[in-house]
Design a protein that fits this description.
The protein has 417 residues and is mainly beta. Strands 1, 2, 3, 4, 5, 6, 7, 9, 10, 11, 12, 13, 14 and 15 form a 14-stranded mixed sheet that branches. Strands 8, 16, 18, 19 and 21 form a five-stranded mixed sheet that branches.
Amino acid sequence: MKKITLKDFIQNKRVMIMLSFLAAVIMWFVVANTIASEISREIQQIPIDVVDQASSLSNLGLKLGETDITYATVEVYGPRAVVGGLTANDLHVSVSLNGVTGPGISELKLTAEKVNVDADFKILNVYPSSVSVKIDRQASEDFPLTANLQEIEVQDGYVMDNYYITPETVTITGSDENIEKIDHCEVKVDVASGLDTTVTTTGDILLYDKEGRELPLDNYYLSTYKADITIPVLKKKTLALKVDFLNVPTGFDLTKLAYSFSTTEIDVAGPKDAIDSKNEIHLGYIDLRTVLPGSTYTFDITLPNGFLNIKNINTSTCTFDLEGYETLNLNVTNIIPINVPANFNVDIQTNVLNVTVIGPAEQLAELTGEDVVAELDFSDRDVTNGQYNIPVRISVPDKDQVWANGTYSVVVVVESK
């Protein structure tokens, strides 16, 4: 048998592998017993939380303001396997408000806590140990909401009416100093130009100072951060003004009655569907019995809901040009009841009426009381036995430009048959 030498033993690969493994085990055992199993470590860039403390100060009417340092470093101690895997997300650093009673600059102690209270490590120190924080007096104020629509255009033939915002105001809470910076609040409007119909959109609320610079919302709490704005877009149209007449005698020709308006038409704007179906504005009524030469009647111009009076012309005066017209007093004896129920008799107690009529001189020249008729119409009343004072309607047959001025009535006795 060949004798195995030391050289052969060393050059044997299998033997060398076994010796290397044995050496590694021995080295691991030495390291494990000479290097500590627990270590300390500093975790950096941990945000300092001041927001969570705001509710505590609000009861005092105070608000946490700016701080000179926003991040902290925390020293921890514990098992190497645990501590080695910690990050800034595993720790929470906040300020202590002990001793804060009023506004000003306060030096507040920093405290650190484990996010997972069961985590196997200890907190040794916080760096820095304190921070300077500005404590502000808290204020709340209501501000009206506005919008800037200067960049929005409408199509030709349309007009933009006053917008309205819901809600109309926003309550803003912040420090006295920051509240004083607010000049106005706007709703951001993002709509395309060339509008031809009313639009409603929702926009963010933005704050501006008196120089027109936008203020950061981080310094404020708003009761709402968005608002709805409605922008009415109306179609323009010119509409004629019109009146109607009451108590016009039978056969009277209104087309020959000369009158004029101080304003005959107005420029308006309204919702497209509504204004397309409208050609005139009805001002009201004129009782022909009240009209005399030179009479004037002033009417308020009232538009339908949703319409805009573009030129703000709010009244129009109707004037009667009755040149060549005259008045004439006549004794009228033709007092005639009409539409009397068949089971009643009517006995007229008034024998004559003194009536003032108006008309062109040529139509009044040969007019007598016998040409005038006073009618008592029973069709629009309940007929019962008794004595009544009943209004009559005056007409002048065959005279299409003559009417009676004033009101007249006669006494009658009604009896059943």
